Amino acid sequence: MWSNPSINKITMKIAIVSTVGGYSWAGSEEMWKLMAVEALKDGNSVAAFLQYPISESGELDDFRSGGGVISPYQSLNWIQRRLSAKGWYSRFQSVDRWKPDVLCISLGVPCDLFTQKDILALAQRMKVPQVYILQCNAEANLQGEQMRKALLPLYWNAARIICVSEGNREMLERQLAMDLPNALVIPNPIRERLEEPMAWPDESRGMRLATVARYETGCKAQDIILKTLSSEIWKGRDWHYNLFGSGPDESYLRDLIRYYGLEEKVTIRGYERDLKKIWGEHHLHLLVSRAEGLTLALEESMCCGRPALINHAGGNHELIRDGIDGFLSPGLDSDSLNKTLEMAWSRKNEWNQMGISAHERVKEWVPEELGKHLVSTIKNSLK
User: Fold this and answer.
1) Is the dihedral of CA 370, 371, 377, 380 positive or negative?
2) What is the CA angle 169-174-176, rounded to 5?
3) Which single residue of 50, 92, 168, 298 could bond 137 by disulfide (Cβ 3.0 to 4.6 Å)?
4) pLDDT of the residue at 263
5) Domains of the chain (ranges plus CATH)?
Protein backbone atom coordinates (compact mmCIF):
# COMPACT_ATOMS: atom_id res chain seq x y z
CA MET A 1 0.00 0.00 0.00
CA TRP A 2 1.07 3.59 -0.59
CA SER A 3 1.94 5.50 2.57
CA ASN A 4 1.76 9.22 3.09
CA PRO A 5 1.95 10.93 6.51
CA SER A 6 -0.17 13.86 5.28
CA ILE A 7 -3.32 11.72 5.27
CA ASN A 8 -3.45 12.01 9.05
CA LYS A 9 -4.33 15.69 8.69
CA ILE A 10 -7.89 16.75 9.42
CA THR A 11 -8.26 17.93 5.82
CA MET A 12 -6.92 16.54 2.56
CA LYS A 13 -6.21 17.66 -0.97
CA ILE A 14 -8.10 15.24 -3.21
CA ALA A 15 -7.43 15.08 -6.95
CA ILE A 16 -10.15 13.41 -9.03
CA VAL A 17 -9.50 12.31 -12.61
CA SER A 18 -12.46 11.04 -14.64
CA THR A 19 -11.67 9.04 -17.78
CA VAL A 20 -15.17 9.46 -19.25
CA GLY A 21 -15.71 11.84 -22.16
CA GLY A 22 -17.84 12.39 -25.23
CA TYR A 23 -21.02 13.31 -23.34
CA SER A 24 -22.36 16.50 -21.76
CA TRP A 25 -22.93 14.41 -18.60
CA ALA A 26 -22.99 10.74 -17.66
CA GLY A 27 -24.33 8.68 -14.77
CA SER A 28 -20.79 7.45 -14.15
CA GLU A 29 -19.91 10.91 -12.82
CA GLU A 30 -22.51 10.96 -10.04
CA MET A 31 -20.50 8.90 -7.54
CA TRP A 32 -17.27 10.90 -7.60
CA LYS A 33 -19.28 14.14 -7.63
CA LEU A 34 -21.26 13.12 -4.55
CA MET A 35 -18.04 12.19 -2.77
CA ALA A 36 -16.38 15.45 -3.84
CA VAL A 37 -19.24 17.68 -2.69
CA GLU A 38 -19.32 15.94 0.68
CA ALA A 39 -15.52 16.21 1.00
CA LEU A 40 -15.74 19.95 0.35
CA LYS A 41 -18.32 20.28 3.14
CA ASP A 42 -15.80 18.59 5.45
CA GLY A 43 -13.24 21.27 4.67
CA ASN A 44 -11.14 19.29 2.21
CA SER A 45 -9.79 20.74 -1.02
CA VAL A 46 -10.93 18.98 -4.19
CA ALA A 47 -9.81 19.45 -7.77
CA ALA A 48 -11.51 17.56 -10.62
CA PHE A 49 -9.69 16.93 -13.90
CA LEU A 50 -12.48 16.30 -16.41
CA GLN A 51 -12.88 15.75 -20.11
CA TYR A 52 -14.71 18.31 -22.19
CA PRO A 53 -17.71 18.74 -22.40
CA ILE A 54 -18.39 17.13 -19.00
CA SER A 55 -16.12 19.78 -17.49
CA GLU A 56 -18.65 22.47 -18.51
CA SER A 57 -21.79 20.66 -17.34
CA GLY A 58 -24.37 22.45 -15.22
CA GLU A 59 -24.50 19.24 -13.15
CA LEU A 60 -21.29 20.50 -11.53
CA ASP A 61 -22.77 23.77 -10.22
CA ASP A 62 -22.95 22.48 -6.64
CA PHE A 63 -19.34 21.28 -6.88
CA ARG A 64 -18.21 24.70 -8.12
CA SER A 65 -20.24 26.64 -5.56
CA GLY A 66 -18.78 24.47 -2.79
CA GLY A 67 -15.25 25.53 -3.72
CA GLY A 68 -14.32 22.70 -6.06
CA VAL A 69 -11.72 23.38 -8.75
CA ILE A 70 -12.30 22.10 -12.31
CA SER A 71 -9.42 21.56 -14.70
CA PRO A 72 -10.70 20.57 -18.17
CA TYR A 73 -8.86 18.43 -20.67
CA GLN A 74 -9.57 17.22 -24.21
CA SER A 75 -9.51 13.68 -25.59
CA LEU A 76 -6.23 12.69 -27.21
CA ASN A 77 -5.83 13.18 -30.96
CA TRP A 78 -3.78 10.67 -32.95
CA ILE A 79 -0.52 12.63 -32.62
CA GLN A 80 -1.00 13.04 -28.86
CA ARG A 81 -1.78 9.33 -28.52
CA ARG A 82 1.52 8.42 -30.14
CA LEU A 83 3.44 10.94 -28.06
CA SER A 84 1.79 9.88 -24.80
CA ALA A 85 2.53 6.22 -25.58
CA LYS A 86 6.23 7.17 -25.66
CA GLY A 87 5.94 9.22 -22.48
CA TRP A 88 6.53 12.50 -24.31
CA TYR A 89 3.12 14.10 -23.70
CA SER A 90 0.69 14.32 -20.79
CA ARG A 91 -2.59 16.12 -20.19
CA PHE A 92 -2.11 15.80 -16.42
CA GLN A 93 0.97 17.80 -15.46
CA SER A 94 -1.35 20.10 -13.52
CA VAL A 95 -2.22 17.15 -11.24
CA ASP A 96 1.46 16.92 -10.24
CA ARG A 97 1.64 20.66 -9.67
CA TRP A 98 -1.45 20.55 -7.44
CA LYS A 99 0.35 18.06 -5.12
CA PRO A 100 -2.67 16.09 -3.89
CA ASP A 101 -2.69 13.92 -0.78
CA VAL A 102 -4.82 11.33 -2.55
CA LEU A 103 -5.55 10.59 -6.21
CA CYS A 104 -9.02 9.29 -7.12
CA ILE A 105 -9.45 7.99 -10.68
CA SER A 106 -13.04 7.37 -11.82
CA LEU A 107 -12.96 4.77 -14.58
CA GLY A 108 -15.58 3.97 -17.16
CA VAL A 109 -14.00 0.50 -17.51
CA PRO A 110 -10.88 -0.98 -15.84
CA CYS A 111 -8.72 -0.87 -18.98
CA ASP A 112 -9.04 2.95 -19.14
CA LEU A 113 -5.97 2.97 -16.90
CA PHE A 114 -4.04 1.32 -19.72
CA THR A 115 -5.55 2.58 -22.96
CA GLN A 116 -5.12 6.26 -22.06
CA LYS A 117 -1.35 6.21 -21.71
CA ASP A 118 -0.93 9.54 -19.95
CA ILE A 119 -3.41 8.37 -17.27
CA LEU A 120 -1.38 5.16 -16.95
CA ALA A 121 1.79 7.23 -16.54
CA LEU A 122 0.07 9.46 -13.97
CA ALA A 123 -0.99 6.47 -11.87
CA GLN A 124 2.49 4.93 -12.11
CA ARG A 125 4.38 8.03 -11.05
CA MET A 126 2.10 9.49 -8.34
CA LYS A 127 3.49 8.39 -4.95
CA VAL A 128 0.29 9.09 -3.05
CA PRO A 129 -2.59 6.76 -2.07
CA GLN A 130 -4.81 6.00 -5.04
CA VAL A 131 -8.53 5.18 -5.08
CA TYR A 132 -10.13 3.77 -8.22
CA ILE A 133 -13.88 3.94 -8.89
CA LEU A 134 -14.89 1.24 -11.37
CA GLN A 135 -18.22 2.00 -13.04
CA CYS A 136 -18.45 -0.87 -15.53
CA ASN A 137 -16.75 -4.07 -16.69
CA ALA A 138 -17.19 -6.60 -19.48
CA GLU A 139 -15.69 -9.94 -20.47
CA ALA A 140 -13.40 -8.70 -23.24
CA ASN A 141 -12.52 -5.43 -21.54
CA LEU A 142 -9.25 -6.39 -19.86
CA GLN A 143 -7.18 -8.85 -21.85
CA GLY A 144 -3.67 -9.43 -23.16
CA GLU A 145 -0.47 -10.01 -21.23
CA GLN A 146 0.87 -6.49 -21.76
CA MET A 147 -2.27 -4.90 -20.31
CA ARG A 148 -2.40 -7.29 -17.34
CA LYS A 149 1.26 -6.73 -16.46
CA ALA A 150 0.78 -2.96 -16.51
CA LEU A 151 -2.46 -2.93 -14.51
CA LEU A 152 -1.83 -5.66 -11.96
CA PRO A 153 0.54 -3.63 -9.70
CA LEU A 154 -1.75 -0.58 -9.86
CA TYR A 155 -4.85 -2.45 -8.77
CA TRP A 156 -2.92 -4.46 -6.17
CA ASN A 157 -1.37 -1.34 -4.61
CA ALA A 158 -4.52 0.81 -4.75
CA ALA A 159 -5.68 2.11 -1.39
CA ARG A 160 -9.21 1.23 -2.43
CA ILE A 161 -11.04 -0.09 -5.51
CA ILE A 162 -14.71 0.89 -5.38
CA CYS A 163 -16.90 -1.32 -7.59
CA VAL A 164 -20.58 -0.59 -8.11
CA SER A 165 -21.51 -4.29 -8.21
CA GLU A 166 -20.26 -7.61 -6.90
CA GLY A 167 -20.23 -8.95 -10.44
CA ASN A 168 -17.79 -6.25 -11.56
CA ARG A 169 -15.51 -6.97 -8.60
CA GLU A 170 -15.46 -10.73 -9.23
CA MET A 171 -14.83 -10.20 -12.94
CA LEU A 172 -11.89 -7.88 -12.27
CA GLU A 173 -10.30 -10.47 -9.96
CA ARG A 174 -10.72 -13.15 -12.62
CA GLN A 175 -9.31 -10.90 -15.34
CA LEU A 176 -6.23 -10.22 -13.19
CA ALA A 177 -6.12 -13.77 -11.73
CA MET A 178 -5.68 -12.21 -8.30
CA ASP A 179 -7.69 -11.60 -5.14
CA LEU A 180 -8.20 -7.90 -4.44
CA PRO A 181 -8.73 -7.44 -0.68
CA ASN A 182 -8.70 -3.68 -1.24
CA ALA A 183 -11.87 -3.87 -3.39
CA LEU A 184 -15.33 -3.20 -2.01
CA VAL A 185 -18.81 -2.77 -3.44
CA ILE A 186 -20.65 0.55 -3.06
CA PRO A 187 -23.76 1.27 -5.17
CA ASN A 188 -24.16 4.36 -7.29
CA PRO A 189 -26.10 7.22 -5.67
CA ILE A 190 -29.73 8.02 -6.41
CA ARG A 191 -29.89 11.66 -7.47
CA GLU A 192 -33.33 12.23 -5.92
CA ARG A 193 -34.38 9.80 -3.23
CA LEU A 194 -38.17 9.42 -2.97
CA GLU A 195 -39.69 8.31 0.31
CA GLU A 196 -42.75 6.87 -1.43
CA PRO A 197 -43.27 5.37 -4.90
CA MET A 198 -44.84 7.68 -7.46
CA ALA A 199 -48.50 7.26 -8.35
CA TRP A 200 -49.10 4.55 -10.93
CA PRO A 201 -49.58 6.05 -14.42
CA ASP A 202 -52.88 5.94 -16.27
CA GLU A 203 -53.18 2.79 -18.42
CA SER A 204 -55.98 4.03 -20.68
CA ARG A 205 -53.48 4.89 -23.46
CA GLY A 206 -51.84 1.49 -23.21
CA MET A 207 -48.70 0.39 -21.41
CA ARG A 208 -45.78 2.81 -21.65
CA LEU A 209 -42.31 1.26 -21.81
CA ALA A 210 -39.05 3.21 -21.52
CA THR A 211 -35.30 2.77 -21.68
CA VAL A 212 -33.13 5.38 -19.95
CA ALA A 213 -29.60 4.91 -21.24
CA ARG A 214 -27.10 6.57 -23.50
CA TYR A 215 -27.59 5.89 -27.21
CA GLU A 216 -24.71 3.44 -27.47
CA THR A 217 -26.00 0.11 -28.72
CA GLY A 218 -22.68 -1.71 -28.35
CA CYS A 219 -23.20 -1.40 -24.60
CA LYS A 220 -26.87 -0.60 -23.99
CA ALA A 221 -28.38 -3.00 -26.60
CA GLN A 222 -31.41 -0.94 -27.61
CA ASP A 223 -31.06 -2.63 -31.02
CA ILE A 224 -32.00 -6.02 -29.52
CA ILE A 225 -35.07 -4.54 -27.85
CA LEU A 226 -36.21 -3.00 -31.14
CA LYS A 227 -35.71 -6.29 -32.99
CA THR A 228 -37.76 -8.11 -30.35
CA LEU A 229 -40.62 -5.61 -30.47
CA SER A 230 -40.74 -5.69 -34.28
CA SER A 231 -42.69 -8.97 -34.55
CA GLU A 232 -46.28 -8.79 -35.77
CA ILE A 233 -47.49 -10.15 -32.43
CA TRP A 234 -45.89 -7.28 -30.52
CA LYS A 235 -46.93 -4.67 -33.07
CA GLY A 236 -50.52 -5.69 -32.51
CA ARG A 237 -50.46 -4.97 -28.77
CA ASP A 238 -51.30 -1.75 -26.96
CA TRP A 239 -47.99 -0.21 -25.90
CA HIS A 240 -45.58 2.59 -26.71
CA TYR A 241 -41.82 2.53 -26.18
CA ASN A 242 -39.76 5.68 -25.50
CA LEU A 243 -35.96 5.91 -25.52
CA PHE A 244 -34.44 8.57 -23.28
CA GLY A 245 -30.78 9.55 -23.52
CA SER A 246 -28.17 10.90 -25.90
CA GLY A 247 -25.15 9.50 -27.65
CA PRO A 248 -23.41 8.56 -30.90
CA ASP A 249 -25.95 5.94 -32.06
CA GLU A 250 -29.02 8.18 -32.19
CA SER A 251 -29.07 8.21 -36.00
CA TYR A 252 -28.63 4.43 -36.09
CA LEU A 253 -31.53 3.94 -33.69
CA ARG A 254 -33.76 6.16 -35.84
CA ASP A 255 -32.77 4.07 -38.86
CA LEU A 256 -33.59 0.85 -36.97
CA ILE A 257 -37.01 2.18 -35.96
CA ARG A 258 -37.77 2.86 -39.64
CA TYR A 259 -36.25 -0.46 -40.74
CA TYR A 260 -38.46 -2.43 -38.35
CA GLY A 261 -41.57 -0.36 -39.16
CA LEU A 262 -41.93 0.87 -35.57
CA GLU A 263 -42.45 4.59 -36.25
CA GLU A 264 -45.92 4.53 -34.64
CA LYS A 265 -44.78 2.51 -31.62
CA VAL A 266 -41.34 3.87 -30.70
CA THR A 267 -40.12 7.43 -30.07
CA ILE A 268 -36.64 8.86 -29.53
CA ARG A 269 -37.18 11.31 -26.67
CA GLY A 270 -33.64 12.61 -26.04
CA TYR A 271 -32.03 13.44 -22.71
CA GLU A 272 -34.34 14.15 -19.78
CA ARG A 273 -32.84 15.19 -16.44
CA ASP A 274 -36.07 14.96 -14.41
CA LEU A 275 -36.56 11.32 -13.42
CA LYS A 276 -40.03 12.05 -12.03
CA LYS A 277 -41.12 13.41 -15.40
CA ILE A 278 -40.01 10.17 -17.06
CA TRP A 279 -41.51 7.71 -14.59
CA GLY A 280 -44.65 9.70 -13.98
CA GLU A 281 -45.83 8.48 -17.39
CA HIS A 282 -44.16 5.06 -17.84
CA HIS A 283 -44.96 1.62 -16.43
CA LEU A 284 -41.94 -0.63 -17.19
CA HIS A 285 -38.21 -0.02 -17.56
CA LEU A 286 -36.58 -2.05 -20.35
CA LEU A 287 -32.87 -2.14 -19.56
CA VAL A 288 -30.75 -4.84 -21.15
CA SER A 289 -27.01 -4.39 -21.63
CA ARG A 290 -23.97 -5.98 -23.20
CA ALA A 291 -21.72 -4.41 -20.53
CA GLU A 292 -22.76 -2.87 -17.24
CA GLY A 293 -21.85 -1.84 -13.71
CA LEU A 294 -25.02 -1.29 -11.73
CA THR A 295 -26.76 1.46 -13.55
CA LEU A 296 -28.00 4.58 -11.85
CA ALA A 297 -30.98 4.64 -14.22
CA LEU A 298 -32.20 1.31 -12.81
CA GLU A 299 -31.90 2.51 -9.22
CA GLU A 300 -33.84 5.66 -10.06
CA SER A 301 -36.72 3.92 -11.86
CA MET A 302 -37.03 1.49 -8.93
CA CYS A 303 -37.01 4.40 -6.48
CA CYS A 304 -39.92 5.89 -8.44
CA GLY A 305 -41.80 2.62 -8.05
CA ARG A 306 -41.39 1.03 -11.48
CA PRO A 307 -40.46 -2.59 -12.24
CA ALA A 308 -37.72 -3.35 -14.76
CA LEU A 309 -36.89 -6.02 -17.29
CA ILE A 310 -33.15 -6.71 -17.30
CA ASN A 311 -30.58 -9.36 -18.27
CA HIS A 312 -27.46 -10.75 -16.60
CA ALA A 313 -24.99 -7.88 -16.96
CA GLY A 314 -22.87 -6.24 -14.29
CA GLY A 315 -24.85 -6.10 -11.06
CA ASN A 316 -28.36 -5.27 -12.27
CA HIS A 317 -29.48 -8.82 -11.50
CA GLU A 318 -28.03 -8.47 -7.98
CA LEU A 319 -30.57 -5.73 -7.33
CA ILE A 320 -33.65 -6.95 -9.24
CA ARG A 321 -35.32 -10.11 -7.90
CA ASP A 322 -36.93 -12.00 -10.77
CA GLY A 323 -40.70 -12.01 -10.50
CA ILE A 324 -40.68 -9.75 -7.43
CA ASP A 325 -39.19 -6.38 -8.46
CA GLY A 326 -39.16 -7.07 -12.19
CA PHE A 327 -38.12 -9.67 -14.75
CA LEU A 328 -34.74 -11.24 -15.56
CA SER A 329 -33.98 -12.45 -19.09
CA PRO A 330 -31.60 -15.45 -19.08
CA GLY A 331 -29.87 -14.15 -22.21
CA LEU A 332 -29.45 -11.11 -24.43
CA ASP A 333 -30.46 -12.84 -27.67
CA SER A 334 -33.80 -11.90 -29.15
CA ASP A 335 -35.41 -15.28 -28.39
CA SER A 336 -34.56 -15.09 -24.67
CA LEU A 337 -35.66 -11.48 -24.48
CA ASN A 338 -38.92 -12.23 -26.28
CA LYS A 339 -39.78 -15.04 -23.84
CA THR A 340 -39.11 -12.74 -20.88
CA LEU A 341 -41.15 -9.94 -22.43
CA GLU A 342 -44.01 -12.38 -23.02
CA MET A 343 -43.87 -13.39 -19.35
CA ALA A 344 -43.82 -9.75 -18.28
CA TRP A 345 -46.76 -8.88 -20.55
CA SER A 346 -48.81 -11.79 -19.19
CA ARG A 347 -48.31 -10.37 -15.69
CA LYS A 348 -48.79 -6.67 -16.48
CA ASN A 349 -51.60 -6.46 -13.94
CA GLU A 350 -48.88 -7.11 -11.30
CA TRP A 351 -46.51 -4.35 -12.45
CA ASN A 352 -47.84 -1.83 -9.96
CA GLN A 353 -47.20 -4.12 -7.00
CA MET A 354 -43.79 -5.06 -8.39
CA GLY A 355 -42.97 -1.36 -8.57
CA ILE A 356 -43.83 -0.92 -4.90
CA SER A 357 -41.55 -3.83 -4.09
CA ALA A 358 -38.79 -2.30 -6.28
CA HIS A 359 -39.06 0.97 -4.36
CA GLU A 360 -38.54 -0.75 -1.01
CA ARG A 361 -35.72 -2.89 -2.40
CA VAL A 362 -33.63 0.02 -3.69
CA LYS A 363 -34.14 2.06 -0.51
CA GLU A 364 -32.52 -0.79 1.41
CA TRP A 365 -29.79 -1.21 -1.21
CA VAL A 366 -28.50 2.38 -1.41
CA PRO A 367 -27.37 3.97 1.90
CA GLU A 368 -29.14 7.23 2.74
CA GLU A 369 -25.94 9.16 3.50
CA LEU A 370 -23.88 7.66 0.71
CA GLY A 371 -21.72 10.78 0.27
CA LYS A 372 -20.51 10.67 3.86
CA HIS A 373 -19.96 6.93 3.53
CA LEU A 374 -17.77 7.47 0.46
CA VAL A 375 -15.64 10.14 2.15
CA SER A 376 -15.18 8.06 5.32
CA THR A 377 -14.32 5.00 3.20
CA ILE A 378 -11.56 6.93 1.48
CA LYS A 379 -10.23 8.46 4.70
CA ASN A 380 -10.27 5.12 6.55
CA SER A 381 -8.53 3.33 3.68
CA LEU A 382 -5.64 5.78 3.72
CA LYS A 383 -4.59 5.35 7.36
Assistant:
1) negative
2) 95
3) 168
4) 97
5) 5-189+367-381 (3.40.50.2000), 207-365 (3.40.50.2000)
